[in-house]
Write a structure and sequence with these properties.
six-stranded parallel sheet; Precorrin-6x_reduct; Rossmann fold; oxidoreductase; 30% helix; Cobalt-precorrin-6X reductase; precorrin-6A reductase activity; cobalamin biosynthesis
Length: 256
């Protein structure tokens, strides 16, 4: 019996953990796809490809050409374009497909969140009065904050923001999580942060800043995620492994 060919769209801790777990199975042949936006990606436990596919049609052709039996979207919760492409490619090819998504953070007592739908809305939510802003949204969309140059920005990202923001006052921190609450409290206090701008990515690696903001009574502008409602989604590695077992079971293959 041949191995099940699985394409995992990755770039997250969960994708790496899922790939590691599936690589231990003798019946699976894995390929992990990364977007290629990080200069020095972490080592992965399975073969890796890097770069885009050329839209949903290109991804569909890649799936068919590689004889894949399953597509798993384990990309970042805000990687909207590749997730849309995955949904369309799976529909076009008829290949089984599901998404692995860490649950979003929930507002807790003491949180001072302003929830917004987009980065552009987050810029507007900062208001006109100058503030000291801790920007933790990655580097891809940081340029939007050039439309609010009155603020002082502390910008943390894995890779450099290139080109730097065209604002009078910005300081850059290059760092990779996880970030512990105690260290986040020190960072927020020493930089006299008034407000944090964050994406509701979920997970524990970057939740330290949310706990620290709660403890220090610092406001958070939270960009909420938007996900397709019609995509089969699991929250944990265990649920993903169980679903893989289900999809590859003999009864499912026979249509029973």
């Amino acid at each position: 019996m041949g191995k099940h060919r699985i394409l995992i769209l990755g770039g997250t801790t969960e994708a790496r953990q899922l790939a590691t777990a599936l690589s231990r199975r003798a019946d699976c042949d894995l390929l992990l796809s990364l977007a290629g936006r990080t200069a020095e990606p972490m080592a992965q436990p399975v073969p890796v490809r890097s770069g885009g596919f050329g839209g949903s049609r290109g991804l569909a052709e890649f799936l068919k050409g590689g004889n894949f039996n399953l597509l798993i979207d384990a990309t970042h919760p805000f990687a909207a374009q590749i997730s849309r492409n995955a949904t369309l490619a799976a529909a076009e090819t008829g290949i089984p497909f599901f998404a692995l998504r860490r649950p979003a953070w929930n507002r807790e007592p003491g949180d001072r969140w302003t929830s917004v739908d987009s980065i552009i809305d987050a810029v507007g939510a900062l208001g006109d009065r100058p503030k000291r802003v801790f920007l933790t949204i990655g580097r891809q969309e940081a340029f939007h904050f050039e439309n609010a140059p009155q603020h002082h920005y502390i910008i943390r990202s894995v890779d450099p923001v290139t080109p730097p923001l065209g604002v009078p006052d910005a300081h850059y921190i290059l760092a990779t999580g996880p970030f512990e609450e105690a260290a986040e409290r020190v960072l927020l206090t020493e930089n006299r942060i008034d407000v944090i701008v964050a994406k509701n990515s979920g997970g524990i690696a970057t939740y330290g800043k949310i706990r620290a903001a709660r403890a220090l009574d610092i406001a958070v502008i939270m960009v909420e995620r938007r996900q397709p409602a019609d995509v089969r989604t699991v929250d944990t590695i265990g649920e993903a492994l169980s679903l893989v077992d289900h999809l590859f079971s003999p009864d499912i293959k026979r249509g029973v």
